[in-house]
Amino acid sequence: MLGAALFALVVAVQPVAAVSWTGEARISSASVFRPTTLRTGASRAVVVWQHGSYAYLKRTTDGGVTWLPRVTLASGIGVGVSASASGSSVDVVYTKRATCASTGDPVWRLWYRRSLNGGATWSTPKALIGACSSAADHAIARHANGQVSVAWTGYSSGRILVRTSIDGGATFRAAVQAAGTTDWEPGNQPFYRGTPAIAIGTKGTTYIAYSSAVNRLSVRRSSDRGATWSSATTLTASAAGPEIDLLATDGRAVVGYMRSVSGQMQAVYRRTVDRGATWSTTRQTVALQAGQFSLWPRFAYRSGVLVMETKAGVAGDSPVWYRTSSDFGLTWSARHRVSVERVEDSDPEPGGIALLDGTVLATYTENRGTGSEGMWVRRGTP
Questions:
Q1: Which of 60, 318, 348, 356 could form a disulfide linkage to 339, CB 3.0–4.6 angstroms apart?
Q2: Which homologous superfamily is 20-381 in?
């Protein structure tokens, strides 16, 4: 009787996934790299992505029913465009290839742009590093208090640097070294991979999660808006893949990443409820059976609800799934499928979630040359 009662109690407190998918829009018919989906208002959102050497944006003002024409944010960019938003302000950073005038050497210079009206118009690009400096990977975060923080890995130094603005991106403080990495990629031009993710919580608490060494995921925090940084906390020494997702709200944060356990790829996460002083044990985004795998966890949060996108299944049939939590990741709803099967060998990837007022926008990509490649946004009612 006691066991049955406990089981009933656990079931009773599970968050309910009441999402009902009501529509879908095809955002791009070309292959897409690392899209980001962001809320910019009660019924407004943007999707930012890379195709080839271009960074693009599309926006909606009616909850995802229709989407305005595509906007080109940058051309000639390196690998990846990072984006963030708070309220109607949107920020992007990217690298562009240039030549150092004094040495003639090629460099990857880091650039920043912002929009204060939900992506309708954009500032002129602003360089965040010197004309002879190179950045590898990068990340950006914005908070409602006006803080904008940009993190990047020094291409040939392995230093993970941060520049912070406290006036909404109008001006930035000098760069501060927040961390470092020994993870590097060989080749004609060897470079370091810190794969930083950055997030801003309340009272100026800023978090960075990054690859500090091969397969090692670490996190640091700042309590003074990125001016100084704590020592590193190692979250795992068995991380697999470069994708890290980091979200912060109030005094809590969650970091999602991938690991390999006995040859099985798993999407997992850890959480903190004390501003990064301690972190929970590792948990999988979805339960897996033998022969299955999961990848690429993505998180969003609004009004007490934490939501997740993750890819899970078997080779050739690994859909993108959606789950919700009302206790910041302690318990989760049943998973609901996001991606629509369009090809027999379905292999979509998560593209992020925007939580609007009364509407969920969940993005996914299918990068296959079958006529179905591209990016879709599903519209749901929670």
A1: 348
A2: Fucose-specific lectin (2.120.10.70)
